[in-house]
Structure formats: structure tokens, C-alpha cells
Design a protein that fits this description.
Order of helices and strands: HHEHHE
Number of domains: 1
Bound molecules: adenosine-5'-triphosphate, magnesium ion
Distance between the termini: 27 Å
Helix content: 25-40%
Strand order of the largest sheet: 1-2
Strand content: 5-15%
Shape: globular
Length: 88
């Protein structure tokens, strides 16, 4: 595994910021990186890949976030080959 220079900056941002947005080009290791932050079970990993989760998030984003076990990582990756959905 290559070391990610952004890891420390991400952890620093998470230490004092309620929500941190990680964005990057396709296939650059975003999902792998955020999953490592969930490995010790200190954060839950939520993916919007499923139609049900995506529908809930779009229908009522505030309630969706309120209902998450926090702290949480929300992965909004579009499926391979599809453009981003405009979610943040
Ligand atoms: N730190 C790393 N060192 C080496 N390979 C890595 C590393 N992180 C990710 N990879 C590899 O790079 C590929 C893409 O990783 P990943 O799916 O995490 O990227 P992504 O940015 O989430 O992609 P997508 O934009 O398609 O969602 C995978 O094959 C993964 O195993
Ligand atoms: Mg990804």
C-alpha cells in the first residue's frame, strides 16, 4: 500500500471540523483511504451505492444525517462509469 500524504491532513481536519469533504479524481484511492479510517470501528461507513440509501438521503438529507450512527463516513461515489450525482 502506498502511503497517502493527505492522511494526516484529513485526520487534523476531522479533529476540529464537524464535516470534512474528500473529493478527488476517479480511482485515486478515496474509498480505500476513508475505509481505513473506519477500520477500528470508531466511525461507521455508510455508502450511497444502494438505491434505498440514496433515495433516503435525497428525500430528506437532514433526517438522513441525523439518523446515522456518528461519527460516520458517507461515501457518495457514483457507480463505475457514471458521472457524479452532484451530492456533497
Ligand atoms: N494507498 C494505496 N496504495 C496502493 N494502491 C491503492 C491505494 N489506495 C487505493 N489503491 C488501489 O487503487 C484502486 C482505486 O482505489 P479506490 O477504489 O479506493 O479509489 P477511488 O478514488 O475510491 O475510486 P472511484 O473514483 O472509482 O470511487 C484500487 O485498486 C485500490 O486497491
Ligand atoms: Mg470510491
Amino acid at each position: 500500500m502506498n502511503r497517502r500524504n493527505i492522511t494526516q491532513r484529513l485526520l487534523e481536519a476531522l479533529a476540529d471540523t464537524p464535516a470534512v469533504f474528500l473529493r478527488g479524481a476517479r480511482q485515486t484511492g478515496k474509498t480505500t483511504l476513508v475505509k481505513t479510517l473506519c477500520q477500528d470501528d470508531r466511525r461507521s461507513y455508510i455508502t450511497l451505492d444502494s438505491a434505498t440509501a440514496l433515495a433516503a438521503a435525497l428525500d430528506d438529507p437532514t433526517e438522513f444525517v441525523r439518523g446515522l450512527p456518528k461519527p460516520a463516513v458517507i461515501s457518495a461515489d457514483p457507480p463505475a462509469g457514471q458521472p457524479p450525482r452532484g451530492l456533497v
